[in-house]
Amino acid sequence: MTDTAQPPYAVPEFGKDPSDPPTVPLPPVSAGADGPSGALSGLETRDLTAWFGQRKVLERVSLRMRAGEITALIGPSGCGKSTYLRILNRMHEMVRGAALAGEVLLDGEDVYAPGRRPAEVRRRIGMVFQRPNPFPAMSLYDNVISGLKLAGIRASRDERDHLVESSLRQAGLWNEVSNRLGTPGGALSGGQQQRLCIARSLAVSPEILLMDEPCSALDPTSTRRIEETIADLRHRLTIVIVTHNMQQAQRVSQSCAFFLASHDTPGRIVEAGPTAQLFTDPADPRTADYVNGRFG
Ligand SMILES: Nc1ncnc2c1ncn2[C@@H]1O[C@H](COP(=O)(O)OP(=O)(O)OP(=O)(O)O)[C@@H](O)[C@H]1O
Ligand SMILES: [Mg+2]
Under CATH, what is the fold of the domain 40-292? Predict the structure, then answer.
């Protein structure tokens, strides 16, 4: 198949989901402040290929992101890391003309199976973006629980209070904001705003958390703080993080995948495996060149 071959099918456009999400009771706070939950979920892609219009940007990407681990995705700009991440939780289809082939398996079940609702997938696979994006005029309290309605989760006042506290604790922000939950999200520092966004993601009890360069807009101190938070979350859920910071990949992740694209070929995984191995004893010379800063 050439890079301009027709995609086998177009993903349905976001928002065309026929049924409104049913309201469901609050899921158990699987990763509550009280301790880790039971089984954790893993994620896997098989032969994932993606297009924007006629342009193929990812080619047959197969990767296992193991339950309870932090997997780092690294690679030069434009190689498809963000696209890959957005495919994992069905955000890719929000882009007009976007298409894909292959499978995304959450605990062995394809998130693109017919009848599967995107909103349900996005509740189970949360996302934190490069720039902190809290609702600036909304209180910290309401920011944390702002995802509940969209996820179709109803909760009593007591449950909401508990959720706000446990989510902020897990995000490592509770001690800094517990006495000012009514202040607006926009009043926090950049690093605090990013932890608020992490708390917002955690409030709907995701099984997987995707993070797209979550520290790239932050100073070194805030970056450290977020990295501590990520490390603390590791035993509670499965994390996939895109980073351009090689030190960060080594500090936070157990597994690592190196993506690469050239000007006329789509992004592919060159090498994936234990982080220590990728950084100290990579199998492919291109990996060695990249992790040692010789290109990209
Ligand atoms: N909405 C879009 N429409 C068309 N092409 C897109 C769109 N988003 C991304 N692309 C293209 O897809 C390719 C992969 O982009 P992507 O953003 O996934 O790369 P990336 O690895 O995340 O890069 P960076 O490290 O700079 O964030 C690029 O060639 C990009 O130009
Ligand atoms: Mg990106």
Answer: Rossmann fold (3.40.50)
